[in-house]
Design a protein that fits this description.
CATH class of the largest domain: Alpha Beta
Distance between the termini: 44 Å
CATH architecture of the largest domain: 2-Layer Sandwich
CATH topology of the largest domain: Beta Polymerase, domain 2
Order of helices and strands: HHHHEHEHEEEEH
Radius of gyration: 18 Å
Strand order of the largest sheet: 1-2-5-4-3-6
């Protein structure tokens, strides 16, 4: 275990850049997974050397700037696909979340949408009526410190996986998080996504 602050800071920075590259090139979406893999590559054993998500986002932004032209086109394409689906699912108040919204999405990124309805089954029926095949699972979110177990439907669109998190209408007013300690999930309505595409 290193007691040298300078060495620890250098290792944190190294892990952040390795994790950013993994997220950009390998399509890893999960920060914890990217950090663990990057730490193994860097030979880090001290958990205090781990960068936080904001440090990885900063490294990812720097990485993207080196490949700006290519990334800009990929991001625009992902946002266009997301917006098309949001317009199709307009009845369910869709919001875009995740790396496609933040602008850090890589070539193999998934698209994450939140849908709001008082009847989650109506979303399933909508997809089935249009012969859109989906896979279902559950995920855990938090409204404050209250855990919510919510369904997620995954569809395929243009070679990308699109994850639809199904939430109730009352959850639309809540600040949802992926963990108790985490920040509220950023989300954007279709008109905001449309403006991001124009800006990009």
């Amino acid at each position: 275990m290193s007691r040298d602050p300078g060495r620890n800071n250098h290792m944190r920075e190294n892990i952040a850049h390795l994790a950013a590259r993994l997220m950009a090139e390998d399509g890893i979406e999960d920060y914890a997974q990217a950090k663990r893999k990057a730490a193994r590559q860097a030979g880090a054993s001290d958990s205090r050397q781990m960068p936080n998500n904001d440090e990885i986002d900063a490294a990812l932004k720097l990485y993207r700037e080196l490949y700006r032209h290519e990334h800009s086109g990929q991001l625009r394409n992902l946002r266009r696909i997301a917006l098309d689906i949001m317009r199709e699912l307009a009845a369910f108040n869709p919001y875009l979340t995740g790396s496609v919204l933040r602008g850090s999405a890589g070539q193999y990124a998934d698209i994450h949408l939140q849908l709001f309805s008082d009847n989650g089954k109506s979303i399933e029926h909508y997809l089935l009526s249009r012969n859109i095949r989906f896979r279902s699972r559950e995920t855990r979110l938090y409204a404050g410190d209250m855990p919510l177990v919510v369904p997620v439907l995954t569809i395929d669109r243009d070679g990308y996986e699109v994850h639809l998190t199904l939430l109730s209408s009352r959850d639309q007013r809540a600040q949802l998080k992926t963990s108790i300690e985490g920040k509220p999930i950023e989300r954007a309505k279709p008109e905001v996504v449309a403006s991001l595409i124009v800006e990009n």
